[in-house]
Amino acid sequence: MGFRFRKSINLGKGFRLNVGKGSGSISFGGKGFRQSISTTGKATTTFGIPGTGLSYSKTFNPGKLIGKKDQLFRKAEGDTGLTPLQEISEFTEDIAAITGLHREADYPPNVDWNSVLDEEPPFAKGEDGPNTAAAKKLLEENKPGFLKRLFGGGQDTALFQKNVEEARLLDQELMEQWQMNKVIASKVLTKDTEGFIMALESLKMSEELGSFLKSLNMSFTDADTINVDAVLSITDFIPEEYKTLTPTGKLSIRKYTKTDYWSIAAQFVAGIAFRISRDLFNLFPIADCYINITEEDKNPYTGKKDSELILSVKIERSELDRIDLENADPFEALVNFHHEADFSKTKGFAKVSKVSV
């Protein structure tokens, strides 16, 4: 999060040069797919199903977008080279992200599975796939010293030759994914719960929220009801201190009051529950989500991990549609649903029992 520099230059013929603070990359591709090769060695190919908002991404040398608290919140001035105001701005954005998880979803609303079922194959049998065609074109048009002039590096055509080989594998995955999408769509449209599970695995939903969760498990009671068990650690994400300015304009680190700390934690936990339910309602024609959130933290006295169920809630699609989550406090919004939560503004969460299915 925070301030970033990124410039994109159109090189023509479907290619773009992307320049950031720490690296540069070339990206190419068209409708439904895009390939990006970075000077840091990271190569990413994304291909989607046009008109549905669904996509599958394949990344080489991946890194997490967001980490634990120590990575998300920098405590000491000078760690980033930012001014005090910039550090406070970054910190404020991080807190807003943690307390605003309920405002967004990872998938578009009302996914049109009929469009997925009717989608044409990504390329004709016997022809090059889009990734292979684009990689070959880049190889042919690459001139000696091209990357060196752009990035100051020493890459040569061998990189592009290797990319053609990788592109063929990606196109094979693209075709396999298209075939799998049709199977999944057929099952989802007939409310076959096996199709729901296949879709969750294919779309890697657990990875979308994996940065905030230790684990995420889902099962179906029937074609209208899904059960979700999520495990998280509050102390991994909620900082005990916040950043502010002194009267002289210097950065100051102060400890949150217990009330402020647990207010952020409550919004984080409830926000996770609403985010998961929104994702599932957007993907599938189901009526109810049972969300159970367990907190897992290390016991300072035993060194072992303690786990306690801290929130259990039945979220109904019809009721969720009535709520303006954009302007609602997620923890306060739980009052609209049958739920179990034992929460103190100064002590936090206590153990509860599951809501009965």
**Strands in their spatial order, largest beta sheet:** 1-2-3-4-5-6
Poorly predicted regions are 1-68, 74-78
Could you give a short account of the major beta sheet?
6 strands, antiparallel
What level of helicity do the residues show? 25-40%
Order of helices and strands: EEEEEEHHHHHHHHEEHEEHEEHHEEE
Q: What would you call the structural class?
A: alpha+beta
- What is the beta-strand fraction? 25-35%
Cα shape: globular
- Total count of helical runs of at least 4 residues: 12
Number of strands: 15
Distance between the termini: 39 Å
Pfam family, one: DUF4236
Protein name: DUF4236 domain-containing protein
SSE layout and pairing:
Layout lengths: L5 E7 L2 E6 L3 E5 L4 E6 L4 E7 L4 E7 L8 H4 L11 H16 L13 H6 L11 H12 L4 H6 L5 H33 L3 H11 L1 H4 L6 E8 L2 E8 L1 H4 L3 E5 L5 E5 L2 H26 L4 E11 L6 E12 H4 L9 H4 L4 E3 L1 E3 L3 E3 L7
Parallel strand pairs: 8-11
Antiparallel strand pairs: 1-2, 2-3, 3-4, 4-5, 5-6, 7-8, 9-10, 11-12, 12-13, 14-15
